Amino acid sequence: MKEGQVGPRRMAALFDLDGTLVDTRPGVRAAVAAAFTEVTGDESAGERVDLSLSLDDMILSADAAAPPALRRLVSAAFRRHYDSDCWNVASLNPGAEECLSALRDAGVRLFVVTNKRTGAAERLLEHFHLAGYLEAIVGQTDGGEPLPKSQLVGRCLADAGLDPASTVVVGDSDQDAAAAASWGMLFIAVASGTGPLGHASAVEKRVEVDSLADAAAFTLKGASGRRS
């Protein structure tokens, strides 16, 4: 390489957390049910909730007519229940640690971008011994309005100095697909995740794989191509 010439950027992968690396559905559903029961007496909300959404949108998916004041009460109750005894009612998805380990060993920069609060995500990733593979964890703040996932992805790109052209998003839901498309990034859709995941839109760059092992293999193939 000539002096002053810049080499190719290292490849990076932004992983979704819930449904992709960890199955958190039982604990989140239990916390939603407990929060609605406490605040409104509605014991069936946990059966209606769309778990792929951010917290405020999850609450609306269970009760579309909930006004802002009620959503704030349910949100606060959810966080108390989730942080107390529901957060660790989760299981590591098959191949999660092996996937991250293989990518890190190959020099791929690894991040988690999640709708969870950053602190809650960090605790969960530490619990499953995944945090050590990651350069950063980007999630929602404890206060204020939740950000769309596309904005969280943008924050990760900016803070880490990542090039969207050499960065992939690995996830399992339509939200992950939309976030990747908003930055022109390749979306690696993991079919073994919990979704929901519809068909690719016309503006998406998507590759569908069956498992996290396949996601790692595809990403490593791309990383190898960038080094050649």
Structure description:
The chain is α/β, with parallel strands linked by helices. The chain folds into 2 domains: 12-24 and 91-227, 3-Layer(aba) Sandwich (Rossmann fold), CATH 3.40.50; 25-86. It contains 9 helices and 8 strands. It has helices spanning 25-39, 45-48, 55-62, 68-86, 96-105, 118-127, 149-160, 174-182, 212-227, and strands at residues 12-15, 22-23, 91-92, 109-117, 136-140, 167-171, 186-190, 205-209. The strands form 2 sheets. The protein has a 6-stranded parallel beta sheet, with helices on both faces. It has a two-stranded antiparallel sheet with strand order 2-3. Helix 3 (55-62) packs across helix 4 (68-86). The protein is globular, with a radius of gyration of 18 Å.
SSE series = EEHHHHEHEHEHEHEEH
CATH-defined fold name of the largest domain: Rossmann fold
What is the CATH domain class of the largest domain? Alpha Beta
Unreliable segments of 5+ consecutive residues: 1-8
* Shape type: globular
| Quaternary structure | single chain
Biggest sheet: strands side by side, in what order?
5-4-1-6-7-8
- Total number of helical segments? 9
Secondary-structure-based class equals alpha/beta
Distance between the termini: 13 Å
Rg value: 18 Å
Q: What is the number of domains?
A: 2
CATH H-tier superfamily of the largest domain: HAD superfamily/HAD-like
**Helix proportion range:** 40-55%
Share of β-strand residues: 15-25%
Indicate the topology.
Elements: E1 12-15, E2 22-23, H1 25-39, H2 45-48, H3 55-62, H4 68-86, E3 91-92, H5 96-105, E4 109-117, H6 118-127, E5 136-140, H7 149-160, E6 167-171, H8 174-182, E7 186-190, E8 205-209, H9 212-227
Parallel strand pairs: 1-4, 1-6, 4-5, 6-7, 7-8
Antiparallel strand pairs: 2-3
Helix pairs in contact: 1-4, 3-4, 5-9, 7-8
